Amino acid sequence: LAKEQAEMDKIRQETHATYETTKADLELGLSGVRKALAILRDYYCGSGGAAAAMLQDGSSISALMQQPAKPELHSKAQGSGTSIIGILEVVESDLATNLAKEETEEADAQSEYDKMTQENAVVKTTRDQDVKYKTQEIKSLATS
After folding, report:
1. What is the 3-class SS of the chain, one letter each residue?
2. Cβ(37)–Cβ(91) under 8 Å?
3. What is the CA angle 36-38-39, rounded to 5?
4. Which of 26, 47, 52, 127 has a beta carbon 3.0–4.6 Å from 99's, enabling a disulfide?
């Protein structure tokens, strides 16, 4: 029984370590995808303020310096932006689903481990008590 419990403890530690690594990777990936989505949505769906802010304003530069001609604004490719955002949304959904699945599996594994550990403790206590009472019975029979 002690060997089984030790083996269960070892397996549980290994699976928990794997879960922690996987969870960290999934959370990191999910965070990155969400940041990328926010940036792309702002770029493709937001106002043109970010693009306009990149252009130089001639009023703040001294009169001695001549500004080059104002560059043409970069036009956003809406179709490709929508498809990129769509792909990233699918990736985000998959990562979130996998994270939820991993968390559920971890909770189930921990629950099963706790249940088996409790059962082993009950069996051990029962066996110890049986040995104790049998020993007392043998002693009482030997003295009589």
Report:
1. CHHHHHHHHHHHHHHHHHHHHHHHHHHHHHHHHHHHHHHHHHHHHCCCHHHHHCCCCHHHCCCCCCCCCCCCCCCCCHHHHHHHHHHHHHHHHHHHHHHHHHHHHHHHHHHHHHHHHHHHHHHHHHHHHHHHHHHHHHHHHHHC
2. no
3. 65
4. 26
Distance CA 56, CA 140 (A): 102
pLDDT in tens, 67-107: 556 656 655 666 667 888 899 999 999 999 999 999 999 99
Query: Is there a contact between 47 and 106 (Cβ–Cβ < 8 Å)?
Result: no
This prediction has a pTM of 0.63
Are 19 and 106 in contact by the 8 Å Cβ rule? The answer is: yes
By CB neighbour count within 10 A (0-12 exposed, 13-18 middle, 19+ buried), where does 35 fall?
exposed
| Residue 60 · residue 136 · CB < 8 Å | no
